[in-house]
Structure formats: C-alpha cells, structure tokens
Amino acid sequence: MAYYVGLDVSVKETSICIMDDKGDVAARTDISTDPDLIARFISKHAPKVERVVHESGILAIWLTRELEKRGVPIICIDARLAHKALSGRINKSDRGDAEGLAQLARTGWFTQVHIRSESSERVRVLIGARERLIRMRKDLEGHVRGVLKVFGVCMKSVGTGKLRRSFRDQLAAAANTDPAIAMLSETFIPLHKTLCIARDALDDEVRMMARDSELACRLMTVPGVGP
C-alpha cells in the first residue's frame, strides 16, 4: 500500500499526517522540526511512502535538502495555491493543515516550486551582504551630510578611490567646527572605513566567482553588466 505524507512546518514544531492511498489517516503526530525525527517517523509508519509534501516558506529550502539527503521523497509546493485549497476546511489548525497537505499529496493537486541549489544560495548570500553593506554606507553618509548642513558645512562629492577616503577627510576637517561634530567624527570615521573595506572584500570575492563562471562571463559581454 502506498502512503502520502503532509508536513505543516513551523520554526519549532512540525505536524505530520500520513495517509494511505484510500484517503484514510494512518498516523499523525506533532514533533520538533528536526529532519532526523521527521524522517524516522515517516520511515516507521510509512515504509512505502510515495510522496511527501510541505509548503514553501522560510524553512522550505533547508528542510527539503535535509530530507532529500535522508532518502525522503520530499516535494515543496506553492504555499499560495495550497492555502486556497486548505482554506475550504472548516477547522483550521496545524494538524488539519497537515491532513489537507497529505490529501494534496495523494491527489497530486499541487504546484511544485523550484528549490535553489546550495551553490546559488552561496552567491545570493554574498550579493545580498554586499548590497546591505552599500546601503549601510549610503545611510551613514546621508546622515552625516544632513547633520553637517545644519552647521553650515556642505560636503563635496566623493569618489570611489581609496575606500572613499575623501568623505572621511572632509568629516575629520569638519570636526574642528563643533564639539558635537568632533564626537560624530570619532564615531563614524572608523565605522565608515570598516564598511568600505568589507564591501571591497566582497567585491573581490564576487569577481573571482564571476571569473570562474562561464555564464557570468558571457553575460558580462553585455554593455553595462558587471560581475
């Protein structure tokens, strides 16, 4: 007999519902969101599991990879479409959602979503961190420019050379005009330099990754497209 499993996943706990091919519930439980515990429960109560589904969410990528490593036939489905199917149930609960997901697994009425590879996730992490550092640096520079204008100090445009050192030089020069600006200068100059160094380090890492990628090299032949 084939079995179908629905997982309603949350950060701390996962509701599991195992259903046979006739639509009868064979087993259910609420356990910690641990891939080992989930795989062990499924293998114990559903030795011939046909399909296991869970909704896309914050833990979906990690849980899908971990259960695949343990030999579980896991499928991540579109949470928005699954919500429409589950919203028709009278009693809304985690256990009820797990049973509804098991029904979707049994009937095949779901849309599978793509799970990104670990290599692509590493690239996204670096690019996301680089973007965050640039945003933090821009926020810091914008705040300093606004504060100095109150004291009649207008900073000039800043180039990208030498880790944007001209910005820090102008801020250090403005420190002589007021004690408050002096304190601001002592606090923000080291922070600004650290952000610039970290951003340049990530730039170097991204360039190395792009250099080793045939696809990235091909895309960089387009005018205006960088690493």
Write up this protein:
- A hairpin with a 3-residue loop joins strand 1 (3-9) and strand 2.
- With 227 residues, the chain is α/β, with parallel strands linked by helices.
- It is elongated, with a radius of gyration of 27 Å.
- Strands 3-2-1-4-5 form a five-stranded mixed beta sheet.
- The chain folds into two domains: 3-107, 2-Layer Sandwich (Nucleotidyltransferase, domain 5); 118-219.
- The protein has helices spanning 35-45, 60-69, 79-86, 94-107, 118-150, 165-174, 179-211, 214-219, and strands at 3-9, 13-20, 25-32, 49-55, 74-77.
Could you name the key traits of this structure?
5-stranded mixed β-sheet, 2 domains, 227 residues
The major sheet is characterized as: 5 strands, mixed
Strand % is 5-15%
Given the helix and strand composition, which structural class is it?
A: alpha/beta
Topology-level CATH name of the largest domain: Nucleotidyltransferase, domain 5
What is the topology?
Blueprint: E1 3-9, E2 13-20, E3 25-32, H1 35-45, E4 49-55, H2 60-69, E5 74-77, H3 79-86, H4 94-107, H5 118-150, H6 165-174, H7 179-211, H8 214-219
Parallel strand pairs: 1-4, 4-5
Antiparallel strand pairs: 1-2, 2-3
Helix pairs in contact: 5-7, 6-7
